[in-house]
């Protein structure tokens, strides 16, 4: 059992807390994919189990992993509360191997954007390809970088009240461009208690992934086919104005 870091545990708890109030429409989408798969499914970067636990509760044969022991610890707590038995482990997307073949692998909520280099991106796609059975699919979503949203909101702190450990606290978040050339940005999150004392600080560096860049990665990967839809609601081809790219990469039979 990994030793848990106290600050990372607080950050995982905050993530879990905030996610319970957010409905992106993706949990149903991925849980349905896992339910309809003709074999076991694997969730990459399953976090505190926002999607993983719903899929498990639907009776899906789903495994998961995440690189954060603290996120997984929360997932196990939530599973116990719901009487579920999770099959999850600690691993990194860029360097993982599996004990069985999967019909479906999926990676929700921009987690692929945590991969900052081409090597990390291609290593991950190769690992997923190797984990899939012939004909298997890899499904993931990343946001469409919106010039308007970036111009209007990046660099500004935004504050909102959040209920945390039974108390009302203030959550502050700011997204900033970190490197224009590499198209990287950072997301900083902070939590303040009622005395204005900062109790949680975190910062993540992520990569913008416009559609054409994902397509080039797919072309450079071992996957044989790929397609992208706009959002979780339909399987309509993506078009200008859609906020989310939902990619499916397919392994040949
Ligand atoms: C936005 S959360 C998504 C969690 C969950 N899938 C969800 O939708 O709520 C991103 C997750 O990616 C994990 N992560 C980031 N980089 C990773 C990597 N290289 N390998 C495995 N997990 C990673 C983080 O620990 C975090 O739990």
Automatic annotation (TrEMBL):
One of its GO terms (biological process) is methylation. The keyword Transferase applies. CDD domains: AdoMet_MTases. This is Class I SAM-dependent methyltransferase. Pfam families: Methyltransf_25. It comes from the Archaea. Keywords: Methyltransferase, Transferase.
């Amino acid at each position: 059992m990994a030793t848990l870091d106290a600050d990372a545990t607080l950050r995982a708890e905050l993530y879990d807390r905030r996610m319970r109030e957010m409905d992106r429409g993706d949990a149903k989408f991925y849980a349905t994919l896992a339910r309809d798969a003709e074999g076991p499914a694997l969730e990459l970067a399953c976090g505190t189990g926002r999607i993983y636990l719903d899929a498990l509760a639907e009776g899906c044969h789903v495994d998961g992993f995440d690189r954060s022991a603290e996120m997984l610890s929360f997932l196990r707590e939530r599973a116990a509360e719901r009487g579920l038995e999770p099959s999850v482990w600690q691993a990194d997307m860029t360097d993982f191997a599996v004990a069985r073949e999967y019909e479906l692998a999926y990676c929700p909520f921009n987690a692929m954007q945590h991969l900052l280099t081409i090597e990390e991106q291609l290593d991950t796609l190769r690992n997923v390809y190797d984990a899939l059975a012939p004909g298997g699919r890899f499904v993931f979503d990343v946001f469409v970088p919106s010039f308007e949203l970036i111009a209007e909101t990046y660099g500004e702190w935004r504050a909102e009240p959040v209920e945390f450990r039974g108390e009302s606290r203030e959550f502050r978040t700011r997204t900033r461009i970190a490197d224009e050339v590499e198209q990287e940005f950072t997301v900083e999150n902070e939590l303040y208690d009622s005395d204005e004392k900062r109790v949680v600080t975190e910062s993540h560096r992520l990569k913008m992934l416009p559609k054409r860049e994902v397509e080039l990665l797919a072309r450079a990967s071992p996957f044989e086919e790929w397609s992208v839809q706009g959002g979780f609601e339909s399987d309509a081809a993506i078009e200008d104005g859609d906020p989310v790219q939902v990619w499916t990469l397919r392994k040949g039979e």
